[in-house]
Amino acid sequence: MAMSPLTLLLVAIAAIAAPLAYGACNGEASLKGVANDVLWEYGLPKGLVPDSVTSYTFINATGDFKIQLASSCYVWFGDHYTYFDKNLSGTMSYGAISNLSGIQAKKLFFWVSISSMVARPERGMIEFHAGFVSEDVPISLFENVPVCGNGVGGQFRGAAGVIREMNVLPVAEV
Ligand SMILES: *[C@@H]1O[C@H](CO)[C@@H](O)[C@H](O)[C@H]1NC(C)=O
Ligand SMILES: *[C@@H]1O[C@H](CO)[C@@H](O)[C@H](O)[C@H]1NC(C)=O
Ligand SMILES: *[C@@H]1O[C@H](CO)[C@@H](O)[C@H](O)[C@H]1NC(C)=O
Fold first, then answer.
1. Which residue ranges have their beta carbon within 6 Å of ligand 3?
2. pLDDT (tens digit, 9 = 90+) per residue, 23-72?
3. Which of the chain's termini has less CB crowding within 10 Å, N or C?
4. Domain 27-166, second-level architecture
C-alpha cells in the first residue's frame, strides 16, 4: 500500500531529524566545533575550551553561555594544570569572558578559580583574573583545542604535551 503524503512527510522529517538527534550523542566533533567557534567569533582563542563538549547553550542577546563537558577534566597549559568542571558557565562579550564558573588553575599547591579573562591581542596575550590578581598568558597557547585529560596518574595526552613545551604559567598568580 502506498504511503499517504502525510506519512511521507513524517518519514522525511524523521530521516532529517534522526542524524541531529544522534549528533547530540556521538557527534561531539560538531558540538565542540560550535562552542569553540563561538569563542573565535568573539575574539577569543578556540583552545580555551577542551575537546569534550557534549552540550552547549549560548544566548546571543546577553552573551550568557553554558557548556557541559563529557566529564570534568585536566589540561596542561604551560607547566601547570588547569581543571575544567563538567559544567562551565559565564558571560561572553567581544574579547572577554566574565562571571566565569568552572575553571581552576593550579598554583603551587592551590587551585584558584578563574573568574574572568580579557584578550589583549595588541600584546598577543590573554589576561586571566582570579579574584584580585591577574596574569598575562600568550594567546598562542590556546590556539589549538586541547584534548581532555582525566588527571589519573598524571598522564596527559595529545595537545597537552605540545602546549607544555612552551613552559609558560597558565593563569593568575595568587
Ligand atoms: C548576536 O548579537 C550581536 C551583538 O551582540 C549581533 O550583532 C548579532 O547580529 C547577533 N546575532 C544573532 C544571530 O542574533
Ligand atoms: C551540571 O549541570 C546539570 C544541568 O545543567 C546538572 O544536572 C548537573 O548536576 C551539573 N553537574 C555538576 C557536576 O555540577
Ligand atoms: C554569574 O553566574 C552565576 C552562575 O555561575 C549566575 O547564577 C549569576 O546570575 C551570574 N551573575 C551575573 C551578574 O551574570
1. 89, 91, 99, 101
2. 333 434 446 577 888 898 999 999 999 989 999 999 999 999 999 999 99
3. N
4. Roll (2.30)
pLDDT in tens, 150-166: 765 444 433 443 334 33
CB-neighbour burial class of residue 167 (10 A; exposed 0-12, middle 13-18, buried 19+): exposed
**For 71-97, what is each residue's pLDDT tens digit?**
999 998 877 679 999 999 999 999 999
Tell me the per-residue pLDDT of 102-147, one tens digit each, with 9 for 90 and over.
999 987 778 899 999 999 999 999 999 998 889 899 999 998 888 8
| CB distance 48 to 159 below 8 Å | no
* H helical segments located in the chain: 5-26, 28-41, 159-165
Rounded to the nearest angstrom, the distance between the alpha carbon of 104 and the centre of ligand 2 is: 17
- The protein residue with its alpha carbon nearest to ligand 3, atom 9, reads 99
CA–CA dist 142, 49 (Å, integer): 9
**How far is it, in rounded angstroms, from Cα 90 to Cα 44?**
14
The DSSP bridge pattern shows strands 64-69 and 80-93 to be: antiparallel
